Amino acid sequence: MTTFAQCAAPLTARGIAVFPCGTDKRPLTRHGFKAATADSAQIDVWSAAHPDALVAQPTGRGSFVLDVDVDTGKGVDGFVTLRANGWDVPATRTHTTRRGGAHYWFRVPEGMTVGCSAGKIGTGLDIRGTGGYVIRWDAHGGEVENANDVLDAPVWLLDAIRATGKKDDHSAKAAQSLSQVAGSEIAEGGRNATLASLAGSMRRRGMTPEAIEAALLAENAEKCVPPLDDDEVRTIARSIGRYEPTPSNPADEQTIMRLAALAPIDYDRVRVEEAERLGIRVSTLDSLVAQARGEEEESAGAALFPGVDSWPQPVDGTALLAEIADTIRRFIVCDEETVIATALWCAAAWLVDVVNVCPILLINAPEKACGKTQLLTVVGKLVPRALQSAGISPAAVYRVIEKYRPTLLVDEIETVLRDNEELRGLFNAGHSRDSALVVRCVGDDFEPTAFRVFGFKAVAGINADRLAETVTSRAVVVQLRRKLPGENADRLRAVDPGLFADLRAKLARWASDHTETIRTARPVLPDALGDRDQDNWEPLLAVADAVGDQWGDKARAAVLTLCGQAGDARRSAGAELLADIRAAFDVRKITRIAMADLLTTLTYDQESPWATWRHGQPMNARDLGKLLGRYGIKSKAVKICGESPKGYDLDQFTDAFARYLDIPSLNGA
């Protein structure tokens, strides 16, 4: 039996990247054609897992393929289409396919991008270019003609491709926007809804029913796993009703055009009043203005994040925060500091465009049944564009933040971030506006692309305050506890939906009215806080000061309490080691100590981290030296009772104790 590796060898030897597909021609790799490689080690791994796999090659990297399909069962014969149109295919490299069709290889013209299509230039004629792939039937015994000649594409073929490109320009943009949500594949559970959304988007862009049907059939063939039946796709295309994008009243249409001509900041100032004058919802006005500007709202984004109608009258900040605090107390049993911090964080999330730091709201619970998920859900009902998930991949994080700028909410964070350095890095990067860019290679050409990941994130977990210090130091940590028998909390499922809708509307209005106040705010930050905690709490304190009426005092009292509770949990292993070493010197009342004696002291307590430091074994001299080396402290010969063992003088620790242990108390003691 010839294995996948053996079939692929002639191609990879020439540097051609390949990947495995099943007999249904579906990729067997997690990332599809993007995983293609010529690396023999990876090829061997794939071959061991899928010895009978077909060899597939991505297209669009300098060449594309005219795929002439022959399927007698469906009455499809691409050669008939070629003859009917008088199209002659030049003697370029040609592979015979399994069912008697052919793959004709051509060079991509300079300055032109050739994508993928199915049947658009004619029945039985598919194009495989950028974003596509073909099975290399020649690797499995298929015939090859003109093996050494990949020619320029004939004029008739390029004209046919360009013609379909002009007709489907809008559909390509719609498909691209949906693909960023759905990924390179549309899974079985979302095929109908995604294709329906795409059809609606294309109809709103003015495409004809025939063009929509052709585009949906192509998307279905290329991305749906498994594809829907063609008749079902045609039913979806025919079911899309006509969308009327403009007002029927000429006077209203003039108003929309006038508003569309305004700068965004000027439009924000008048949108509420204009919507009231027109007698429509603010979200409806926003949609009409966006259409007039040519900024068609994508259906997928609209479904994820419904618009919020700003409260029609100015909102009193004191009353609003009091209402939010009462709502939190209604559903969550927690300390007052947690209520204050959460209410301020939710208000600050509406001001993401003007603050310079987006602290993570870290909801921590010591055990199950403490209400962490309920509080995360309450937060999600109070913040703008909430996107709640029990798990999210790094690629999804930077794409969804760049595209929609949501408030991201993630439960079970201790599981999500476990052994996921890339995701942890993205969370950290989104903390500060100055560092909130990540660069990733995207597309078939692996083009370096910058993504903005700046935004508010709320996470919840059990013992989440023990996450990596790089995460907790960027967080406002709020603590929960299990309620006692006499403590009561309402269930969210019984609440009137209008409660949170009104609070969101009021938050939107208050934030809009105080944008400049927060943008220029420089709140007084407690000196007892470290630099990072000052950064985290600055936007929350700015909101508290803007509200006034003692909220500033309450917020500063809360920050001192909460940061004091989190201080020990955020202490690094090195700082904890320094504290235990200082205790060893103090208890013994000595100024020098042998390394062996110090290790015995550190590991004596079986509950200390040093007793199980090395995978359950006690810390050794090498571990100790490595940790202390971070602080510039190295062992040396010390004179003790006439001997000179390796050890340390107390003076060696003076600088480290002062820098990392001798800090003011956060509780003002």
Output the number of helix runs.
27
CATH fold-level label of the largest domain: Rossmann fold
The CATH class label of the largest domain is Alpha Beta
**Rounded to an integer, what's the Rg over CA atoms?**
32 Å
CATH architecture of the largest domain: 3-Layer(aba) Sandwich
Helix content: 40-55%
Oligomer type: single chain
Tell me the number of strands.
24
- Mean pLDDT, to the nearest integer, reads 81
Strand content: 5-15%
Distance between the termini: 78 Å
Shape: flat
CATH superfamily of the largest domain, please? P-loop containing nucleotide triphosphate hydrolases
Q: Work out the count of structural domains.
A: 5
Q: Helices and strands: which structural class?
A: alpha/beta
Question: How many strands, what sense, and barrel or not for the largest sheet?
Answer: 7 strands, mixed
Contiguous uncertain segments of 5+ residues: 166-183, 241-248, 296-300, 566-570, 664-669
Model description:
With 669 residues, this protein is an alpha/beta fold. It folds into five domains: 1-51, no CATH class; 169-238, no CATH class; 250-297; 317-568, Rossmann fold (3-Layer(aba) Sandwich); 573-660, Orthogonal Bundle (Arc Repressor Mutant, subunit A). The protein is built from 27 helices and 24 strands. The strands form seven sheets. Strands 3, 6, 7, 8, 9, 11 and 12 form a seven-stranded mixed β-sheet that branches. Strands 16-17-20-15-21 form a five-stranded parallel β-sheet. A three-stranded antiparallel β-sheet has the order 1-2-10. Strand 16, helix 16 and strand 17 form a beta-alpha-beta unit. 35% of the residues are buried. Residues 166-183, 241-248, 296-300, 566-570 and 664-669 have low confidence and may be disordered.
